[in-house]
Design a protein that fits this description.
single chain, mainly alpha, 4 helices, globular
């Protein structure tokens, strides 16, 4: 993630994955860079929090990280 404020844990992994899946469905361009490759990597890395954090760092910009963090806070 572009800012280190958000770290997905095993407790929040399902919420985060649901959020990302909904973003993929709603926006064909999401995330902004190489969305098709991001989707492929997401399918491989969504299984545990450590891998998902790596995926977020690679693919989400600071604004997207803030939105993900807000979605997690809202769901807890």
């Amino acid at each position: 993630m572009k800012n280190n404020e958000l770290k997905i844990t095993e407790n929040t992994l399902d919420i985060a994955c649901d959020y990302v899946t909904k973003q993929f469905a709603a926006h064909s361009w999401w995330p902004k860079e190489q969305p098709d490759l991001a989707k492929q990597e997401f399918a491989l890395m969504r299984g545990n929090a450590v891998a998902f954090n790596v995926w977020c760092e690679r693919w989400l910009d600071a604004g997207q990280c803030r939105q993900l963090k807000a979605a997690i806070k809202k769901s807890i």
